[in-house]
Specification:
The protein contains 7 helices and no strands. By secondary structure, the protein is an all-alpha fold. The radius of gyration is 17 Å and the shape is globular.
Length: 155
């Protein structure tokens, strides 16, 4: 009931932010776990993001949560701050792993690579979250993105 929900949360925004913290923690955990299971950075990325894409594709509740989160991040400063913090956490995980696997890549190149990869990945998550007909084969797009990231790291 409404009363039971608000016993745990101050308001709708508090409930929404709590659900997104859980989702963000889950996303970070999946990424860390898959990267730790693989010796190959890119295979770990492939497995992590494939798993996250499949969850997003299969679960309409998660898709709705992500859509609402993206919309609220544009208008609510608290949600926007949370969104930025999540982005920085995920970029930090990727940066740490890229440094570990490719220590000779300069920090400037690494920063540019991560920016391009993350912006592309964010776009793919967005079109999945809104059920865009543009993306009929998201896993193939993900594979291409990761392969491009691999080639850039090996240059």
């Amino acid at each position: 009931t409404r009363g039971a929900i608000y016993h745990h949360f101050k308001n709708k925004k508090d409930m929404f932010m709590s659900a997104n913290r859980w989702r963000q923690d889950y996303t970070s955990a999946v990424l860390r776990e898959r990267l730790s299971e693989e010796n190959d950075l890119f295979e770990g990325l492939r497995k992590a993001f494939r798993e996250l894409f499949e969850i997003l594709h299969a679960n309409t509740m998660i898709r709705g949560l992500v859509r609402e989160y993206m919309a609220m991040a544009m208008t609510d400063s608290d949600v926007n701050q949370m969104y930025k913090e999540n982005d920085m956490e995920l970029i930090g995980i990727l940066d740490t792993e890229l440094k570990r696997h490719y220590p000779t890549v300069s920090s400037g190149k690494r920063s540019r690579m991560l920016e391009r990869f993350y912006v592309s990945l964010e776009g793919m998550f967005t079109v999945l979250a809104v059920d865009s007909p543009i993306v009929s084969q998201p896993i193939r797009m993900l594979e291409g993105l990761i392969e491009t990231f691999r080639k850039e790291a090996m240059k």
